[in-house]
Every structure is written in structure tokens, then in C-alpha cells.
Amino acid sequence: MAALARSVLVTGSNRGIGLELVRQLAASPQPPEHIFATCRDPDGPRGKALRELSAQHPSIRLVQLDTVDLPSIRRAVQVVESCLEGQGLNLLINNAGIGSHATLQSVDSQEMLAAFATNVVGPLQVAKEFLPLLEKAAKGAQKTGLSCSRAAIVNVSSKVGSIGLCLGVLEAPMYPYRASKAAQNMVTRCLAAELRDKGILCTAIHPGWVKTDMGTEQAPMTVERSVQGILAVLGSLSQETSGTFLDWEGNSLPW
Ligand code: NDP
């Protein structure tokens, strides 16, 4: 199997789905040459598992990136740019996110705004700041058409953000989380429309309900299985699937 991409950046990669994405990318038979594993605090206790992983794989480069802090995003762009030595960035995975279980009774503006800051503004700002590097990858590619190996933005979304499905609201209202993921989906859709002609693919992906700090132990799926599915789906993306909302098995979801 060909490498998914020459260079990949993952946000929120110190635990959960992000950490497993980095682990499986690095362990793949043809790993990317550059895996930019970003997180808020790579040197602190929360970065321990990622530091241990990166010690085993020279392709992994730890980069500080807080997705709600613009100076931090800009510093990360500089680090990535200098590592790439004139090449572009092929694949940006906006994985970092926060949950919220606020109900109609408990919700307040602070929790709504926090969810929007991390789940909507964050991925959009990260995409905006890394756009020159993604454009460079798209222009420099030998191939035409859209793919993760050329240039792509993948936003990790959630099925509970689907307005079309509007799943389980009474059992799990999660107003801030659902609304923020629905808004993030619109961002994905707009980016896909705007960046298509620049050769950049944009897709939203639902990882399933996964055993992580956010998904909790109650979740039916292991992080290993979810990420195996996500990476297989990413490898299959093309012009036909840019601007769509897919799950970890490649099934299409309504927005
Ligand atoms: P976790 O809570 O396990 O991990 C979240 C990650 O996001 C952590 O690495 C966290 O870093 C990071 N993060 C949060 N805020 C920021 C920020 N401002 N800057 C940088 N990193 C940040 O969640 P999951 O791994 O389960 O979720 C990953 C993605 O998958 C999310 O977008 C989530 O919405 C989505 N998802 C998850 C599902 C599940 O069942 N688990 C279901 C559907 C979607 P730190 O350690 O510093 O807090």
C-alpha cells in the first residue's frame, strides 16, 4: 500500500484518537516522512505518551500547538515550514476537540462559547494559517485530482452534530457540543467548495463512539479500530468524496 501522504499534521495528538492516529501512521508499512504530532503541552505531563512514542519513530516531530491560541498556531506553522524544507504540507487532520454534556437546564454562554472556540474557530484558524503550506503541496504534486496524498484538510466531526440525523437528543442533549460540530461541518463544506479549485480536498469524518477520555469507557469501539477505519477511509478519499461527511467505515452521513 502506498503511503497515505508524505507529510501529515495532527492536532490534539497527545491522547485519544489523535495519539492513535500518530501511532498507526508511524507504524504503517510506508509511514509518512513527516508526522507533525501537535498538542498544547508537549513537554508537560500530558505529553508523556506522545514523547515516548516519538522516541521510537524518527518521523514523528512534536510541535506545540494550542488550536485556540493564534500565536501558537503561527509558531507551529513556522516550525513545520522549516522542517518541510520548501515542500508543502499534504494532510492536516483537525482532531482536537472538547466535549460538553450541558443540557437545556444547565447550558450557559460560557460553555457554548468554549465549545465553539475549540471545535469551530480552532480548526478554521488552523486551516487558514496552514493554507499556504497546503497550497504549496497541491501545486507541487505530480498528480491531479484531489487526495490526502496531494493536499487535504480532514476535520474530525461527530454524528451527533448531524442536523439531518438529530440523534438521541433526549438521552444526550449536549447543546454546546452538537451545535459546535454542526458549525464545524459548515466550515468543512465551505472550505471544500472554496479550495477544490486549488487542489485541496476537505472532508468531515465521524470516528464512531470510541473509548477515549471523551467517549468514556462505555463506548463500544476501541480507539485502535476507529483509527484503522479512519486511515483506510482517508486513503480512499477523492474528488467525489471531498465536501462530504463520512464515518470511520466510509459510510456517508447527512449533514
Ligand atoms: P479526547 O478528549 O480523548 O482528546 C481530545 C484531544 O484534543 C486531547 O489531545 C486534547 O488535548 C486536545 N485538545 C483539546 N483542546 C485543545 C486545544 N485548544 N488545542 C490543542 N489540543 C486540544 O477526545 P477524543 O480523542 O475522543 O476526540 C478526538 C476528536 O474526535 C474530537 O474532535 C471529538 O469531538 C471527536 N469525536 C470523538 C468521539 C468519541 O467517541 N471519542 C465521537 C465523535 C467525535 P489536552 O490533553 O491538552 O486536553
Automatic annotation (TrEMBL):
A GO-annotated cellular component: cytoplasm
Top-level taxonomic group: Eukaryota
UniProt xrefs under CDD domains: carb_red_sniffer_like_SDR_c
Gene Ontology MF term list: oxidoreductase activity
Any single Pfam family the record assigns to this protein: adh_short
Gene3D superfamilies from the UniProt entry: NAD(P)-binding Rossmann-like Domain
Family, as annotated: Belongs to the short-chain dehydrogenases/reductases (SDR) family.
Name the UniProt record assigns to this protein: C-factor
Organism: Cairina moschata
